Amino acid sequence: MSDPTAAATAATQQAETSGADTREARPREASSIELKGLHKRFGKDTVALDGVDLTIEAGEFFTLLGPSGCGKTTLLRILAGLEAPNDGRLLIGGKDVTDTPPHRRSVNTVFQSYALFPHLSVRDNLAFGLRMRGEPAAERHRKVDEVAEFIQLGSLVERRVEQLSGGQKQRIALARALICEPDVLLLDEPLSALDAGLRSQLQVELQRLQKRLGMTFVFVTHDQDEAMVMSDRIAVLDGGIIQQVGTPNEVYEHPANAFVARFMGHDNLFAISASEDDWVDTELGRLRLDPAEQRDDQAGWLLIRPETLELDGEVPEGYNRLEGTVEERLYRGSRIEYRLSVNGRTLMAVASNLGQRMHDVGDRVTISVCPEDLVRVAA
Amino acid sequence: MRKKTLARSLTGFWWLTLAFLYLPLAVVVLFSFNSANSAAHFAHFSLRWYHQLLGNEQIISAFWNSLVLAIVSSVIALVIGCLIGYGMYRHRHRKLGWLIVLIYLPIVLPDIVFGISEMAFFVQINRATGLLEPGLVTMIIAHVTFQIPFVALIVYSRFVGLDPTLFEAAKDLYASPFQRALHFLLPTLKPALISAFFLSFTLSIDDFVISFFTAGPESATLPIYIWGAIKKGVTPEINAIAALMIGAVALAAVISLLFNRQGRR
User: Fold this and answer.
1) Given an 8 Å threshold on Cβ–Cβ distance, is B176 in contact with A103?
2) Residue A103 in contact with residue A97, Cβ under 8 Å?
3) In A, which residues are within 8 Å of B165 by CB distance?
4) Residues A152-202: pLDDT tens digits?
């Protein structure tokens, strides 16, 4: 806080937070994060991160997504300073913090297990970070009341930690990190222990909160739906390597490779055996692609999103035509899912339920596929 | 029907075990209040032997020796054992099984072997340097050595029962290493430390064998005094000392248990 502009920012924040409505957003200078060539090994042969280069913009809701053991948690722990990389640099807000211990980083973490101190009351848990930084007692008290009001849990402040429910613990853990007003907030699967209803409610709340605070959030999850709902951008990790970085629709609609496609929930991936101009030969048959999807390499996969398939009526001019049989029908209310057999391969199709006639198991159907909806995916 | 008989006989067995454990103690306590000088015939209630006990300078001196020994050795064992327990926790993922066995060994070693070894060790040092004359200091050192494993294991098990991310949360929330010790480790450990202190205290008060081998002429503790006095026959005065010791040790044990339970909650 030796920087005069930072001090000025703090002063304006002070002025604003002491205003009438304490729930107003606090404009602050968010920090960007730069990761350069990060390597992390555990023991001799376990590679957790294998050369990670990544830039996270200031004020972004950024998600690290991947299966367990992909390195996402290790990456988060390196950001927090709880783990040191074997190689590479880490910059937060333009400052190299690779060798800065966790207690000197303006970074706070919401842990998966919440990690609330059992020997302290909720109030003392919330004030812990401020107390360690040496803020005066009166200031701590005021900030705790303010943040408790902000997360609408003011009535719980004097309770003991063991008296809280899972959802309440989650919010207190979040508030304990936010109260310190860090440059970056890290969230390690904070919603994974909650039931589905509370979980989707908190997904929306967290996303709104992040936009209101303008703080840089780095969120770790293995749930691709959660990642898509909340994030500005997603990095998909596997085997300690970043497979793709992009906005939710980029990652979902144009996965960089077969791993990302499968991890984002795509079932309709078909190996390409040959391609020429805008034609590809796949296990389903020969299909025409949008010219923009032309590639030099022969290998790879063709991705067909189930919701782009049309099962009713005529095949429009220029569309691909496939013949198939309905193997299974799942009625999901708002939509109907079909498992089709085409050329001996399984093809999934999803139709919005608009009251049209449903196909029965065993029906022969004509499937029309728009060339522009076909996506080529690298191996 | 058979189930009922079984339950009833098990309950009976439980009371029998309790009687077996506590009747001898009850007899000692009862006869400490005997007005007659007899271990066989109870005349009527009197505090005569307790009065006599307070006038016996040897007993008073032995009492103070026991108390000083127990408190000083427990405090030292608490500090060292706490550090060892924390070290065992911090390095629990490394292959330190042999070190843990070394910590356990004094617990399972027969007291007499331990006592004789300590004595031989102190004699050697005394002969070489003139230091460590047998007395209260050598007794304190000997007691600390057998108390440390208990303290270390209580502290270790308290740490093992904690969510490991709490340590990281403290770091994450700007606590320096010193602040983490002061504001996280010590408050979290408090019940375990109190429990460990009272356990060490009772172990020290109880101990006869190791004290016997390491004591000097001036540093007899209550058990050593009793052992010496008993050669002349069991007097009701001895019963009174025993009754007081039972009370003190039971109190310390209950306090230890209560705090240990509070720590687990």
Assistant:
1) yes
2) no
3) 111-113, 115
4) 787 888 888 988 988 899 989 999 999 999 999 999 999 888 888 888 888
CB A306, CB A337: distance < 8 Å: yes
Has residue B28 got a pLDDT over 50? yes
- Please tell me which residue, A359 or B42, carries the higher pLDDT value: A359
Strands A87-92 and A233-238: unpaired
Best B158, B171, B172, B182 member to test A by mutation, with max A CBs in 10 Å, is: B172
When the candidates are 3.40.50.720, 2.40.50.140, 3.30.460.10, 3.40.50.970, the CATH number that belongs to A266-377 is: 2.40.50.140
Q: Is the ipTM of this complex over 0.85?
A: no
Which DSSP string do the residues of B99-113 spell out, in sequence order? Answer: HHHHHHHHHHS-HHH
Among the CATH numbers 3.30.530.20, 1.10.443.10, 1.10.3720.10, 1.20.1250.20, which is that of B52-264?
1.10.3720.10
Residue A298: pLDDT band (50, 70, 90) is low
Which helix (H) or strand (E) is B94 found in, with range?
Answer: none
Provide the 10 A C-beta neighbour count for residue A46. Answer: 10
Name every residue whose Cβ is closer than 8 Å to that of residue A43 and which is 6 or more positions away in sequence. none
Give Cβ neighbours of residue A209 (< 8 Å, ≥ 6 apart): none
Query: Which residue, among A130, A132, A147, would best test binding to B if mutated, counting the most B CBs under 10 Å from its CB?
Result: A132
Is pLDDT of A12 > 70?
no
Q: Give the pLDDT mean for B210-229.
A: 90
